[in-house]
Amino acid sequence: MLRRFLVASAFVALLSGCAAPGPEAYRDERPALDLMRYFDGTVNAWGQFADRSGKVVKRVKVLMRGHVDGDTLTLDEHFTYSDGSTQRRVWTIRRVDAHRYTGRAADVVGEAQGESWGNALRWRYVLALDVEGTTWHVDFDDWMYLQEDGVMLNRSEMSKLGVRLGEVLIAFRKRG
Q: Mapped to the 3 state alphabet, what secondary structure does 4-51 carry?
């Protein structure tokens, strides 16, 4: 019995040692990200999707227009993909407190959850994606990091049922 307990404890300690840092680990990083202020106005973005092997399979340009009303940000995103297809997503993002956000969009299943500290935001949600005529519910784990000069970098891991599907990399640039 004691041996099983020790083995289980060692296994849990090993797993917890592999855990990634949470957003609070970036509390002292600058410039500080104010999500509402950053996306209020026009933001351009450029990105790419790579499959699980690392091969880039699609590129994208995004034009975003945001409007803040109190603690609510409406973010209208217009995507143009390298294959010529287009897409639109309108987010409604609400500031819950100094560090937490929630969000909804038509193709988001349930509610997105965000947490921001210092220059970083972690944004998690489930997106309903059309894959060859079938709708897949795909988990997104976005990490955004504000840089100097209005640049923000975003790395997003996509997975389904715990299996990594690929990664999205995006660079944002705030106008003005």
A: HHHHHHHHHHHHHHCCCCCHHHHCCCCCCCCHHHHHCEEEEEEEEEEE
Q: How far is CA 110 from CA 15, 105, 145, 150, 158, in A?
A: 29, 9, 25, 30, 17
Question: Would the CA dihedral through 142, 146, 152, 155 be positive or negative?
Answer: negative
The C-alpha atoms of residue 129 and residue 156 are separated, in whole angstroms, by: 15
Provide the pairing of β-strand 86-95 with 120-131: unpaired
Is pLDDT above 80 for 16? no
pTM metric for this prediction: 0.87
pLDDT above 80 (res 9): no
Rounded to whole angstroms, what are the CA distances from 157 to 10, 96, 97, 125?
28, 24, 26, 11
| Token code pair at residue 31 | 């410039």
Enclosing H/E stretch for 71: none
On whether the CB atoms of residues 120 and 130 are closer than 8 A, the answer is no
Quickly count: other Cβ atoms within 10 Å of residue 84's Cβ: 6
CA–CA distance, 39 with 13 (Å, rounded to integer)? 40
Q: Give the model's pLDDT for residue 49.
A: 97
Dist. CA 114–CA 23, nearest whole Å: 9
Residues 112 and 152: their CA atoms lie apart, in Å, by: 20
